[in-house]
Amino acid sequence: MAKRTPRQSVNALVDRMDKIEQKLLKISKLISITDETSNVFWNNVSSEVRKAYNEARVVFAEWNKSEIPYFYNENIRKQMKKIRHLSVKNIADKNSKELENANYAKQSQGSIVKSSVSDFTTGSLMGEKKYSRLIGMTQKKNVQENRLNKIVAEGEFLGESTFSVQKQIQNELLNDALDGKYILVIDKNGKEINYKLTSYSEMVARTKLTEAQTESTIQVAVNYGTDLVQVSSHNTKTAYDAQFEGKIYSLTGNDPDFPPATDLPPFHPYCIHTISVTFKEGMEANGSLDGLSQFSKGEIDSPPRKKSFVPLKDRELVGSK
User: Fold this and answer.
1) CA distance 283 to 289
2) At residue 90, does pLDDT exceed 70?
């Protein structure tokens, strides 16, 4: 059986979420055209929305419980296989199977899964609450419009200015629903951000897989008695990421040749950067130690022997470092 890649795994999750998103979109389209006012109708709509959101939470939780441990352990094997081909004397304290079954691995995996599911659950519950508000306001709008149609005959006054404001709010909620924005998140500045169900699940999943890669790599580094890790390089134009690319960091901060690891991937949501275990002995053997040390400390612009690396000063960076 062929091994699945992180991309394939996330794509499979997104496909399942898309089916749920389409269910909610179908309901949204119905809400946009119906003039129903009965409690029975709107209770049924509410029930279908709850089912869709609950299904999304179950699907996401199941994916995390399966895929985070799988790729965490897969990275352990990948890193150790790579190390075996290096000319270093460091001997692994445990083999890959022992490392996968270690308490640290289980606890780390559990922590990532819990955090990932919590993030998604929070966003989906807030999105569901917003959708429930849309349902309530739409039913109320339909009732008020029905009464307005009888206003002349019944001689009633509803306060049309208030109704106009309510209708505007209902219309804004409906537009978000028709755009597929079924997840609501409050950022660190207190700003509301609306996401599509598919894009939010993909963002959280990809970010947490990167976190799993980082944590498992750290475990491998400790297993080999080294505290040095190197950040991958992609010539990114994102200023924050760019400052770390290709550099080597000391996990403990005790290595005089390399700076302490103050931040590691994921640097932000959707981050594509990873880390790999490296050894000072290998750098000494190929003569790259001084150059990599100077580059990692920011004393020179490019790492030695990497012609494809574009210095930061030559990139059109966006954002701030």
Assistant:
1) 5
2) yes
